[in-house]
Write the structure tokens for this entry.
Amino acid sequence: MDTILKTNALVKKYGDATILKNINMTINRGDIYGFVGKNGAGKTTFMRTVLSLTNPTSGEIKLFGDKTIEEVGLRVGSLIEAPGLYKNATAYENLKRFSIIYGADEDKIPEILELVGLANTGNKKAKDFSLGMRQRLGIAIALLGDPEILLLDEPINGLDPAGIKDIRDLILKLNKEKSITFLISSHLLDELAKVVTKYGFINNGTLFEEIEAKKLLEKCKQQVIIEVDDTKKALSILETMIDKKIIKTKDNTIIIDSKEDTAFINTKLVNGGVSVSSIYNNSISLEDYVMERIGA
Amino acid sequence: MKRLVKLQLRNLFSLKSFYICSALMLLSPIINLVASLLIKKEFTATFIPEVSSLLSSTEILITVVIVLFACLDSNDGTLKNIISRGYTKKQYLLSKYIVALVATLIMYLVPIILTFVITIGNGMGFESKYIYYILAYLMQIGATICLYVVLSYIFEKIGPSMVACLIGPNIIGTALPLLQLLVKTKKINIANYWITNIAGNAIVKSPDIVNLLVVAGLSVVYIIGLLSLGLYLGKKKEVK
């Protein structure tokens, strides 16, 4: 598979604080990669580091094989934090100016403005735009020059429900029709879940899980919850039957992240001398699953 | 790089302050002429004092335009749109400097030509030293503009950059005689080598090719030194 972005042991430190800890991320062509984590987990810092807006402390960033951002920057579009706009210029003028340095076709500007819903802004200057309009203009700038990958940091911030749907549809359309790859960070998990094909979970600067969206949905479907009197003893029995990576404990409760035969587990535990007060299969929502993982 | 220069030219020509300050600069020699005629009832000024007066009285206008222009991308947050598409900070800083020079030339050239026409038209005659004088000042301006661009690049925001550019060079210019006292040498006048004095001291006293080359050399040293310093200080800076 064609790798668009790959980072190897990426580390970013600010003084004594380590913001990114050995991040190994792989994004393949066509992915819509959902980057999920709490505020301050390191999502924006990661994106800024990839885009060379801040220097990594150590590690490697490779784009389109083994290229650096300086070599392939024109193939990478981005919207990081607040959109960078010439405040005294109109939406059209903003796109015109950036089209000069992005090598974009000026004739496509009306089409892009139409695409993001800013075709009728006329002579209104960017400084007079609403938060949602600025966000849309930021996305329009990111789309200039037909980039092959788009890095969008909270792209639906400030958008109304109709705007959120527009951007979601736009992401899906660009991904499907133009094979544009996306790296999107968002707190709105439900919205993210509607477009994402792969997830990356980050917590305290550590990318601890990368998983295909389909597999994640499977995982979300079932959990086995067991309440026991002796967690330690129960764990030693369960680990002989089930991969220990999917077993977690919380006080006297054991959670197994998969669908299992509860009757069989119950028998094994009781025979092993563990008193089981309850055992049942439980479905969890994607949001609960993610929140649990990112420690929110 | 060519694209960046093109973008920066577009940014420059979008600045209202550029047009306002250019118009005020253009008015400057005309106001001088009218004021002389009204007060002294005659116009006796020669080219060099007139240009000298023009340069010092309009310096603040140039500073305002250059700082507003140089800070535009960091102030509007558009610098990240440039760097994230693969352009380097070096290319960005150079493009800013090139276009700032263009802006300065545009703003100075017409008033200087106008001053020349007024003084020559007044029967003051043309002297070859005018060429040395103009060239030396253009070189000094090139170095001073570099200082403004680099300070704006380092301070990023308009307020601190404006203060640094308006006050900084003068403070250093004032402090240098004190340094002279500390160094206790009379062989070299340190203040003469400060960026805002290199043309005046070398050329006004003795307008010849040797002094012109000295000014050229010092200007180049200042420009390279300032750009290198700016890039060094900006290297580890985050792009906001």
The mean pLDDT of chain B is 84.
